[in-house]
């Protein structure tokens, strides 16, 4: 079979159960729900949504290769795995396959990073005894860059500008929060791109005054539990669905603008004590490892 031939699609009835733990919930809320525009709870519906996300990515990978996107067009092995990467962690893997590691766009590989992030933050909550007595501060902003007056180069500039702004904002908040996760990404749309800025900070319950005036718009989730944390992490790391649904030119520009940029980080209690571990889990966009 040729590498570019579309693989046989997974049939929903071959998967009979889904995982129901909080890590999988975070993945479903962050990746599967935004793609399918609904939050399914019945096993059959979840399986249908998971397979839909998987099929959208497999088609998109082939499309990116056809359009000459170098990471896929010039590497048949990577294309082979990208066009077959399974969505696991939510449904059991039907067989053991290699992941494609296009972490910026593949719903499976993006979902695995959501899971890693959630697990890491839960471990930090447990180690520091933070459950039930802390408040999550969620800050979600975006900036629109219209395609009519933007070249791919200026999108890259706008993204870099956003990255510097977010790093400064996080630095200024560092002393006021016990721990913080931050994330930025580009969501391609019909007439341009949304650059998204996301911050999830943790403060002691009752200390909301300490951040007033330091963030423009934010929402609070009090008395954080594992379940609430799954929702907060999912909102901050929400998958940019335009990568699967927008026009291919806008998607390529978004992937190129983000390539090689570190788009996620931690402060305070969420930071790893071991620099090596910290380095290993940093995002490397567009699957460049
Ligand atoms: Zn993948």
Descriptive account of the structure:
By secondary structure, the protein is an alpha+beta fold. It is 44% helix and 16% strand. A 5-stranded antiparallel sheet has the order 4-1-3-2-5, sandwiched between helices. A hairpin with a 2-residue loop joins β2 and β3. α1 packs across α2, α1 (22-36) runs parallel beside α7 (226-236) and α5 packs across α7 (226-236). The two termini are 28 Å apart. The model is unreliable at 275-289 (pLDDT under 50). The site of zinc ion has 7 residues, from α5.
Q: Helix tally?
A: 10
Bound molecule kinds, no repeats: zinc ion
Indicate the proportion of strand residues.
Answer: 15-25%
Strand element count: 5
* Structural classification: alpha+beta
Give the helices and strands as they follow along the chain. HHHHHEHEEEHHHEH
What percent of residues adopt helix (DSSP H or I)? Answer: 40-55%
Core attributes:
289 residues; alpha+beta; five-stranded antiparallel β-sheet; 16% strand; disordered C terminus; binds zinc ion
Layout of strands and helices, then pairs:
Layout: H1 22-36, H2 43-66, H3 70-73, H4 76-82, H5 107-127, E1 134-146, H6 152-173, E2 179-189, E3 192-204, E4 219-221, H7 226-236, H8 242-245, H9 248-258, E5 264-268, H10 275-281
Antiparallel strand pairs: 1-3, 1-4, 2-3, 2-5
Helix pairs in contact: 1-2, 1-5, 1-7, 5-7, 6-9
Bound molecules: zinc ion.
Provide a short characterization of the protein structure.
By secondary structure, this protein is an alpha+beta fold.
